[in-house]
Amino acid sequence: MRVALIASPFISVPPTRYGGTELFIANLAEGLARLDVKVDVYANGESRVKASLHSRYARQDWPLASETTGVTKEVDHMAWAVDEADTNCDIIHVSSALGVPFSRFSRRPFVCTLHHPAEAGSTDLYERYDAVTYTAISRHQASLHPRLCPRVIHHGLDLAQYHLEEEKQSYVVFLGRICPIKGPHNAISIAKRAGIPLKIAGEVQPIFRDYFEKEIRPHVDGRNVEFVGEADIAMKNELLGHASALLFPIEWDEPFGLIMIESMACGTPVIAFPGGAVGEVIDDGISGRVCRTVREAASILRSEIFQPKAVRHCAETRFSADGMARRYYHLYSELLGKVPQTFGVASEETAA
């Protein structure tokens, strides 16, 4: 079996900093390779994924200079990638709506993973291409696309990249895009109410610069609230591993929330607001808590104790890259009419 995984040309695979979809592609590619699947990744030339890499653009390009430039570049990259993959691969797997229309030019089974919130325009596009096999990254997201009948396959991590820390320090962390829907302003309120220092890490995209300057920067004093910029994998291990909790106080329906399972992989619980997939990712009371208000979140931080080994165990049993890869391998095998090998698929994977 030979599988083409097509990323966008903008962010390297795996990402050096921001890039949830690119992290998914890297984890899936390397997980499939461990199952002896031949994997071709189509991404920019700065990618370092452990697979056969194909590049039309030599360098990553993020943040985008303009939306128009981004669409033009991605369409060019996608057309080239699908044409190449159709010749060489058995399965073509894309991760963006822009990739779906190119399925009409391919003879191969086409898979599209739905990473983003449901929008009328995208949903209409997906439904026009009903020969494509769709996967959703959470049960909540699948429920938004009932006519697509997507298979739910949760994200997974290469857990060897994340280190369990049992000795926690007296601070909490927010890690993610600095924008209103991700709730860093709520994280500040929670930390202040709980009387616990907060470290904020993440990308400030140009479109949200005013939000950062008005809602976040005035609270940054380097002591009670610290902004440390974007985090690579080493910084994630440091920040998440030693934190007493990750704050995930979102204000939208989160399609999945990779940072939650990255935190769990470091043995650090997640204190989150509900929305989207949050309730199906967190094992409430074990790997974190789902709460509805700043007051409730602050109270949990002051009063509840979580066991780092139990938190890490949730990541190991539910969100490993190998488990994710096995589920995709079974899907690809079905599409090719092959009987898949058995790799000891766990109950969580079978249920999803």
- What sequence of helices (H) and strands (E) makes up the elements? EHEEHEEHEHEEHEHEHEHEHEHHHH
Oligomer: single chain
**Poorly predicted parts:** 345-352
For the largest sheet, list the strands in their spatial order. Answer: 3-2-1-4-5-6-7
The helix content, as a percent range, equals 25-40%
Summarize the structure.
With 352 residues, the chain is an alpha/beta fold. The chain has 13 helices and 13 strands.
3D structure, described in words:
By secondary structure, the protein is an alpha/beta fold. It folds into two domains: 2-156 and 320-351, Rossmann fold; 160-316, Glycogen Phosphorylase B (Rossmann fold, 3-Layer(aba) Sandwich), CATH 3.40.50.2000. The chain is 38% helix and 14% strand. The chain contains 13 helices and 13 strands. The protein has helices at 20-33, 67-88, 120-128, 139-143, 184-194, 209-216, 233-242, 258-265, 278-281, 294-303, 308-318, 321-335, 347-351, and strands at residues 2-6, 38-42, 52-54, 91-94, 110-114, 133-136, 151-152, 172-175, 198-201, 225-227, 245-248, 270-272, 288-290. The strands form two sheets. The protein has a seven-stranded parallel β-sheet, sandwiched between helices. Helix 1 (20-33) crosses helix 12, helix 5 (184-194) crosses helix 10 and helix 8 (258-265) crosses helix 11 (308-318). The protein starts with a strand and ends with a helix. The model is unreliable at 345-352 (pLDDT under 50).
